[in-house]
Design goal:
Layout (H helix, E strand, L loop, with lengths): L1 E2 L13 H6 L7 E7 L4 E4 L1 H6 L11 H6 L6 H14 L5 E6 L5 E12 L5 E10 L2 H14 L2 H4 L1 H15 L3 H15 L3 H12 L6 H18 L4
Parallel strand pairs: 1-5
Antiparallel strand pairs: 2-3, 2-6, 4-5, 5-6
GO molecular function: protein histidine kinase activity; RNA binding
Enzyme class: transferase
Keywords: Kinase, Phosphoprotein, Transferase
């Protein structure tokens, strides 16, 4: 849950909490967003803008713009998710497809949390857009094979974590591996250790699908903090 002051733009805050998690060496397939309920105002990172086919400084995101880029089969679900978030304060999360300005389709996972003010009141939603398009996932798998050879030796637990993410998000195993890889690199955590912690936390989950997905979002963002350190 991100806490920000509503009296100043989070872009000029001394330490942007989303940036601190994402890291300075962020990749163009992961970017952050914020959505403020009161004035229906969106903010997005350059990486998210580029997923939609825009240069970050040239285009102001709006609800209408985001929905217009959703795949026709996914528009109603996203619109309902945004409306529910405004009404209940729940984070925006899920998996959907977007069609960028060039007409190319991207598979996107939205990992979201609540945005709160200094008094703890929910004032919006924040989180990450993760582009898990198959071609990008293949490139990431190749890169990880070079820099993380121990992944091959730890395949069993990684496969379990991939399976859990596949069920929770309704995505392919390759896309699930991309999510694990992102969190491994951004948190500087060994992939096999992160996967093992995911599996342990997933086993504790229960409840109907919406609640499950929200809790999975939380685990994706925080599991690295739960790993015991010597």
């Amino acid at each position: 849950m991100w806490n920000v002051s509503t009296e100043q733009s989070p872009r000029i805050a001394p330490l942007d909490p989303l940036t601190s998690v994402l890291g300075a060496q962020s990749c163009d397939h992961v970017g952050w967003f914020r959505f403020w309920f009161a004035d229906q105002r969106w903010e997005w990172s350059d990486e998210v803008a580029q997923m939609y086919g825009y240069q970050g400084a040239d285009t102001q995101p709006t609800t209408e713009l985001l929905i217009s880029h959703k795949h026709p089969d996914d528009r109603e679900e996203l619109a309902a998710s945004i409306a529910t978030s405004v009404k209940t304060g729940d984070p925006i999360c899920g998996q959907h497809r977007i069609v960028d300005a060039d007409g190319d389709t991207h598979d996107i996972i939205v990992v979201g949390e609540q945005l709160t003010d200094d008094d703890g009141a929910v004032v919006g939603a924040s989180g990450y857009f993760v582009d898990v398009t198959e071609t990008i996932a293949e490139e990431r798998n190749d890169a990880l094979s070079e820099v993380l050879p121990e992944v091959i030796e730890s395949r069993a637990v990684i496969e379990q974590a991939k399976g859990a993410l596949t069920l929770a998000y309704g995505i392919s195993p390759e896309q699930a591996f991309r999510v694990l890889s992102w969190r491994s690199q951004e948190t500087n955590t060994k992939l096999r250790d992160l996967a093992a912690q995911f599996v342990q936390e997933f086993r504790r989950l229960n409840g109907e699908n919406t609640a499950l997905r929200s809790r999975v979002d939380h685990i994706v963002l925080t599991a690295h903090r739960l790993i015991p350190h010597d």
